[in-house]
Amino acid sequence: MASATLWSEEDFSCSICLDVFNSPVTTPCGHNFCRACITVFWDDMVQFKCPVCNELFHTRPFRSSVRVKEQPYRMCKKHNQLLELFCQTDQVYVCQFCTVTDHKSHPVVPLKEEYEVKTAQPGKIEAELQQMIKERQRKIKDIIDTVDHSKADADREIADGVQVLTALRRSVEKSVRPGSVSRSGPRSGPRSYTGPTRVSLARLRLP
Length: 207
Prior knowledge:
Low-confidence stretches: 1-7, 62-70
Shape: elongated
Distance between the termini: 162 Å
Mean pLDDT: 71
Strand content: 5-15%
Number of helices: 3
Structural class: mainly alpha
Largest sheet: 3 strands, antiparallel
Number of strands: 5
C-alpha cells in the first residue's frame, strides 16, 4: 500500500519554474529542481551557483552527473517508485505500480493536475464565502426593510386613532355645552301668588 503525507507547495514545486517537478534532480547543496530548469539556468551562468541558497560550485555539474535525489516520503514504500500520481478514491499519492495492484480500477490523476486542483480550492472557497456574506447581508436588509415598513404602518394607525378620539371628544363637549337645555323647562325666580290666601284676607275685612 502506498504511503503519503500532505505536502506543502514547496515540497513538490521547482523553485525556478514554480511548477510541479518534471524529472526532479538535486544539486550538491541539496535543493531540488526540474532537470531541464537547472540545466538551462546553468547555461546562462558564468559562475555556477544554486538558485536557492547561492552556494557556489567550483565546477559546473554536468547534466549526467546531477544526482537524482528523491526524498523518502516521496517514494512508494511498497514499490520504491516515485509517488507521481494521486488516487482520488483513497485520497493518497501512488506510483505507477500501485495503479495496477492496490489501486487497480481507482481513478488516478497526475500529481500536477491534483496540485492545480488543490491550489484552486482556496480561491473557490473564498468566492463561495463572499457569496454567503452577500446573501446574509441581503437577508439582513430585507429584515430591516420589513421592520421599517411595520413601524410606518403602526405610526399611521396611531395617527388615525388620535384623529378619531379627538373628533369624538369634540362631539361630546358640544353636546353638554350651557344653553343647550330646552326653553320649555322650569323657570327660576319669584312668582306672584293669587291663590286661596288672598280670598281669606278679603273675608276678614267684612263687617
